[in-house]
Design goal:
- This protein is mainly α.
- Strands 1-2 form a two-stranded antiparallel ribbon.
- A hairpin with a 5-residue loop joins β3 and β4.
- The protein is elongated.
- The relative contact order is 0.10.
- The N terminus is likely disordered.
């Protein structure tokens, strides 16, 4: 039922994808003190990542698009679900992040915050640029890119 143990507390499950196993190993390296509810949270992260990977594999094997309620082309609902799974996994991973460095320290988190200085409209400049690149690939201006939510 288990593969290579990640730690004495958390074992890799057979059905976990490689990205889920990597996430577990990365968190355990950063947080060797993980126990109790946090261990359960990490297992849930691995399950969410595995489910997202499975959904994307299925989306790739079928059409990556679907027809919306008004006949427009939309992203496959499988892609949307995979994104939601990854968002949930990211939120849980954020709760498992290592403690922040002491006040005044410019450790790992301080360097990250320093890179994020100069945000525009509450978004990091890199995120703004990424949105512009996606819109350009679609041949539209960023303001007109519309994504329809699935009906469920």
């Amino acid at each position: 039922m288990t593969d290579t143990p990640a730690s004495p507390r958390i074992n890799h499950e057979e059905h976990w994808t490689q990205s889920a196993r990597d996430a577990v190993d990365t968190v355990l390296k950063a947080r060797p003190d993980l126990a109790g509810a946090e261990s359960s949270m990490l297992v849930e992260v691995a399950e969410l990542i595995t489910a997202a990977d499975d959904l994307m594999r299925e989306a790739r094997s079928t059409s990556m698009t679907a027809t919306g309620s008004k006949g427009q082309l939309i992203a496959s609902p499988l892609i949307v679900e995979a994104r939601l799974h990854r968002t949930a996994a990211g939120a849980l991973l954020g709760k498992l992040a290592p403690p922040r460095p002491a006040q005044g320290s410019r450790g790992g988190n301080g360097r990250f915050r320093a890179r994020m200085d100069g945000t525009v409209s509450g978004h990091a400049p890199a995120a703004e640029a990424a949105g512009d690149r996606v819109a350009a690939r679609l041949g539209r201006s960023r303001q007109t890119v519309i994504v329809e939510r699935p009906p469920f």
